[in-house]
Amino acid sequence: MTPTITSAKTTTYLDDSASFVLAKSAKLGLGEDDIFSAPTIGGAHKVEADKHAATKCAKDADCAADQYCTMGMCKDLCARNTTKKKVKCSGETPVCTADNHDSYCACNDESCGAAFSCKKVGSRYSCEPCGAGEKCGCPDGKVSNGAGKCVSCNFDNDCADNEICSNPKTEAAACTALTCPTGQYTANHQCNSCAEAITGCQACTSKTNCTSCEKKYQNPANNGGQCVMKTCGDGQYLNEEDGECYPCSNGCTKCTSATNCQSCQPAYTLISGAYCELNTCADGQYLNMADGQCYSCPAACTMCSTVMTSEEVSACTACVDDYKLSGTQCVLKSCSEMGYATSCGGNQNAVPANKSGSDGACYSCAQKSCSELGYSTSCAAGYSSSPAGASGSDGACVTCSPISGYCTSNSQCADNQKCVSNSCTDVVCPACQTAGNHTCVAVSGCCTSDSQCGANQKCVNNGCVAKSCAEINSGYKTSCSAGYTANSTGVSGSDGACVTCSAISGYCTSDSQCGANQKCVNNSCVLKSCSEINSGYRTSCGAGYDPVSTGVSGSDGACVTCSPISGYCTSNSQCADNQKCVNNRCVLKSCAEMGHQTNCNASEGYTAVSANVSGSDGACYDCNITACPSGYSTSTTSCSGGYTLYTNGKSGGRACGKCEKTGCTSDSDCASDKKCSGNSCVAVPCDTSNGYTISNHNCVATACPSGYSTFTTSCKNGTLETSGKSGGRACGKCEQAGCEAMGYYSSCPAGKVLAGSNIGDCYARCDEVKCPSGYQKTQPSCSGDGYELLTETVSGVACYKCGAKSCPAGYATFNGGDRITQSYCQGSNKYYESNGYSGDYACGKCYGQRPSSSSTRVCSSHADCPSGYECTGGGTECRKCRIGSNLGGSGWSSGIGSCNCSVGTWSTGNGSCSSDVCRDGKAKQYNSRTGTWECPY
Questions:
Q1: Distance spanning both ends of the chain, measured CA to CA
Q2: C-alpha to C-alpha distance for 496 and 479, rounded to whole angstroms
């Protein structure tokens, strides 16, 4: 057991070294307070007088709040500015503070460093980080970041309105200017969208002042910095892409685009809110374009012409049957024109056609039949035929004569006979039957089966009675359902006259009973209209579309589909940017229509720059104002006394002038475009029209425009384009020639990237892709729990490196410059907890509030702790043992460390014990003599 010293019923638990000192002091007659707090002078112990009168006690409660009970006496807790635990207060905690019979080292405002202040945490005072933004002893221009550091800024609000805080809350924090892209403005430390602040705005200086609007809006300078939509006249719409007004489509009076019509002229109908389609009239009607109404055609017309005004008379273009077109009117045809006659021949029958022609009543003439002529076309059996010498509508006619003794039916024989093989023979009947009417008939009142009764009878109770219609024939009925007609069979049954039912031709009750292009209307199948047959079918097409036959007809005529006419247009928006719609076709605009020129007047001070587009009048250019030569200005038009006005070319149509002193001794006395000759400044001879310019008193070659070179005189691919001259040689470039034609690269194979000098998007070479610092192209194997594989893609190439993992939320490896460990947390009287690794360091956090020494102990010896742990902190904590330590039998062990490990095992350092670990953490060695692994001692 742990040695203890008992005084006034109070037990103090001590570690090994304290036990040794206390035992030794007991022999010297020293008290506990004298042992640990009294300094020695000349070998004797000096005891400082207590602030309070010496008071006997049995427990702390018997003493003042700033005292504690030890060895039966009340002692001051902060004697010599030292705590009860014998800690001398200094540094950040220079003040010993006593309260509730305990003491600790506390801070004051002077002891805490910059960005820290002395605050009460729980029941004690300690140096804690100041709140973010507080001055708290930081140098001028800096404030606390809330984590114990002085920084320039923590938040954007610490900076000017157009600045942001870069690297906030770090020592590298700084207020930097906020640069926004076009279309945004700065406010409240951020870039804000101009378009969200002002609808249609493309560039602005604030949320209320737009400087550039979309093309469909008016100039904002004329509308107080706001974007106001442009308006167009009647029958026009605003093209939002170019801001121009274009006419609506054919027949449309109001529209929002070429394909979105809202109202049409009277004779047109709005189709799906997109376009106007010319109205059509039924057969026998014509369209009046003035009011859009359909009116009946003149008499006998089925079709007639459309009229533009109500005063016009419609002309017939097609007539009803039996009429023909004569001029603009329909007149009655003659009988022969209708395929009839007015009279017939002797062997013909005149059949009235029930109509009349312009020449009277009309007839159909039909040849009479042989029977009408008194002959036959063939003879019945038992008769011989002979030609009659005439023909009828049914063929050659014959006369018939009877053959003697011949029979073809029973009627030609006696009642008790029947005709067999064209000869009359006696009828032989079975019992219960008798011959009569050429057959056997049952004796009245005698039947044994249905077969002994008539065809439509059955034997019932030895008597023949009539069958019902269904018994006579399964297809017989007495009545028919809707859609069927009754056909007489000439037979009657016990339930009445028997009929058969046949379907009424064309009768229906639903569309499914009709043909593919029909529908059921009033129980009859009729043709559907074209649009009913197929939603894409029509009978005619609008402007810009050709009809394509479908081979199908509907109730409203032949059905067609409509195919767009290639190249057809109704507005400029349907053409390319450099085209316009003329006569429903897209044609090139002129350069002027596109805002460009075909040539520029160089002598007036204008430079031609290719617009990279061609118009109907050739290549297009933009004319930029040529700057005056150095030292010249268009604003210099006269000089004061002693100076002479010199001019050198023009800029934007205005002369470039400068004033020089009259007379000279060197070129420096003259303008840069003059030189001194005979004490006079004279013009430098220079052919400015041939690619030369005057600079510093000399005539030098003019530089080619960007992208042009005097070395480009021909192109392998594409077209050579020139722009001005340099030193008498044309400046050229290959337009759309491709980089390869110039010996450059436009793209590189996988694993390489464009590099070197460039001409536009063309580069001189392809270099290998380089990984960022610390990365490599081969994938490494990352070892250790604190590392993970990081990947970064550069120009399509994957680069790898092993990087430290991030700690879980709430955990970290360092706090400022201090590593978070168990001892670090104990310094703040907090508990320590670890959770994984980041790189080579454990991720930890401090939490909770550790109990003071007066709190309830969790252990009184190492044996009270789990295996692999030791009792520490005055019995307030069981902590993992150091590697290679053990308890060493019973009681406290001596040596490197003490740990609750059984004899023969040692601490692994991870909270467990093992016989594979040696004392002091040394590794086992192989003993070749014994053939075993042993500890090296």
A1: 29
A2: 10
